[in-house]
Write a structure and sequence with these properties.
Elements: H1 2-13, E1 20-24, E2 33-35, E3 39-48, E4 53-65, E5 72-78, E6 81-87, E7 91-100, E8 103-112, E9 118-120, E10 125-130, H2 139-173
Antiparallel strand pairs: 1-10, 2-9, 3-8, 4-7, 4-9, 4-10, 5-6, 5-8
Helix pairs in contact: 1-2
């Protein structure tokens, strides 16, 4: 019982290293982006990141295109890496590999080559996740993780070993039957 409580306590106090995070356009101050017919707009924003290094970013853009036959193109850059895609339907998703710093720059260029209004909604999001999880974890978190990886199996196996020892001691302490021979 005590071992289980210790294990639960360790799980609760062990900090979980964040290997991913998500931001929406509204989180970094970008409201709904509205474009008229045959127009273009460039938006820039900065954001901070808990991850540093090589990551994958999954971009989800929620949008409204008034004229479904209009060709709408978006180019999205994070720092120096970018990707150009055509918007279709009401949701467009794509991914790219980038390098993140503590402070990062997001640049978005949207071009509407059709007739009708286009809206990119502020709930569009960027989900960043680490390619190499070991490079983004702080050293103190690595130490705690290593200690936990050593202690957790011991705490899980210890009750079983103690129970086996307890059963063996009971068997050895049971009185043996003594046969009395009266001669």
């Amino acid at each position: 019982m005590v071992v289980r409580r210790l294990l639960i306590l360790l799980l609760l106090i062990t900090p979980l290293s964040s290997q991913s995070f998500e931001i929406t356009f509204s989180d970094i101050g970008i409201d709904n982006i509205t474009l008229g017919s045959l127009s273009s707009e460039k938006i820039m924003a900065n954001f901070t990141s808990p991850l540093v290094g090589s990551v994958i970013v999954n971009i989800t853009l929620y949008h409204y295109i008034e004229n479904p036959s209009a060709y709408v193109q978006i180019t999205l850059y994070v720092n120096t890496r970018g990707k150009r895609v055509a918007l279709e339907g009401t949701k467009t998703e794509f991914s790219m590999s980038i390098e993140l710093n503590n402070t990062n720059k997001l640049a978005i260029t949207i071009t509407n080559l059709g007739i009708g209004q286009v809206i990119i909604f502020s709930n569009s999001s960027l989900f960043f996740w680490s390619k190499d999880t070991s490079s983004n974890v702080s050293s103190s978190s690595n130490i705690i993780k290593t200690i936990f990886q050593v202690i957790a199996p011991i705490l899980l196996i210890a009750p079983v070993i103690l129970r086996i020892i307890q059963i063996r001691r009971r068997i050895s302490w049971e009185p043996e039957e003594v046969s009395e021979n009266e001669e």
